[in-house]
């Protein structure tokens, strides 16, 4: 895969893959409980991020103006993990990632990773999915892609090899799907779409960071693993990726 990546993004990505609070969490004893905890934690934190940015506020205001029928349509219970990607959801994902950044840095990031950018995250994510068996319009698939990519990077994925290997990626999706469905139950369709796009953005950023100079990779890998454990209570170094999904070592 050939993707133009500006070197200046790599050190920034090393410390900014996922924003949000850092809850105190404890390791669980089973993989099923680990997946459930990870899913609910990510959903809670990213939903807060997405709800706090100006784009989400404008969407809420627009929906209020539509009256009761409009509110009902956006509050439809999630019966599956699929969603319809939209320009608004993509803008929400970018805005959440840019929260707290200086205006100039936010504009630069959006110009690079937004629609039509040199590293448009939707285009890059679609390329990463090739051959993985995962879909680009499903929240459970987006969770699986992010988690598999994190594992691969933390364990020294080799540039040029598939970041999302076939078989294993689908197995992780199967593991995560029940927890994702429970977490999305009763949530608006707009929440599912924004969350799916946000996780896709994170996976794209992981890939970009993993393409940095060789001497930067050991620190980047350690940071990726420690960030996941600190914020979401998941230690990828205690797991192994198999054709049946994740298993404890």
UniProtKB/TrEMBL annotation:
Cross-referenced InterPro entries: DUF6683
Keyword hit for Signal: yes
Keywords carried by this UniProt record: Signal
Bias (Low complexity) ranges: 68-87
Source organism of the structure: Hymenobacter jeollabukensis
Pfam family, one: DUF6683
Annotated spans, Disordered: 62-87
Residues annotated as signal peptide: 1-27
UniProt KW Signal keyword: yes
Name recorded for this polypeptide: DUF4197 domain-containing protein
């Amino acid at each position: 895969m050939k993707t133009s990546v500006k070197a200046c993004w790599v050190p920034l990505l090393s410390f900014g893959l996922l924003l949000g609070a850092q809850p105190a969490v404890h390791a669980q004893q089973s993989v099923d409980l680990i997946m459930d905890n990870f899913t609910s934690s990510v959903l809670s934190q990213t939903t807060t991020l997405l709800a706090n940015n100006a784009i989400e506020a404008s969407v809420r205001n627009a929906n209020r103006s539509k009256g009761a029928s409009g509110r009902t349509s956006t509050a439809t219970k999630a019966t599956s993990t699929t969603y319809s990607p939209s320009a608004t959801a993509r803008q929400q994902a970018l805005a959440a990632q840019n929260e707290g950044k200086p205006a100039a840095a936010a504009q630069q990031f959006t110009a690079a990773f937004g629609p039509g950018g040199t590293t448009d995250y939707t285009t890059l994510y679609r390329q990463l999915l090739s051959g993985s068996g995962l879909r680009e319009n499903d929240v459970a698939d987006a969770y699986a892609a992010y988690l598999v990519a994190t594992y691969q990077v933390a364990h020294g994925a080799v540039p040029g090899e598939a970041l999302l290997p076939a078989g294993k990626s689908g197995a992780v999706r199967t593991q995560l799907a029940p927890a994702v469905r429970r977490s999305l139950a009763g949530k608006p369709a707009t929440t599912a779409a924004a969350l799916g796009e946000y996780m896709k953005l994170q996976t794209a950023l992981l890939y970009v960071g993993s393409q940095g100079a060789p001497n930067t990779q050991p620190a980047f890998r350690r940071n990726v693993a420690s960030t996941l454990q600190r914020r979401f209570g998941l230690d990828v170094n205690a797991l192994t990726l198999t054709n049946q999904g994740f298993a404890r070592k």
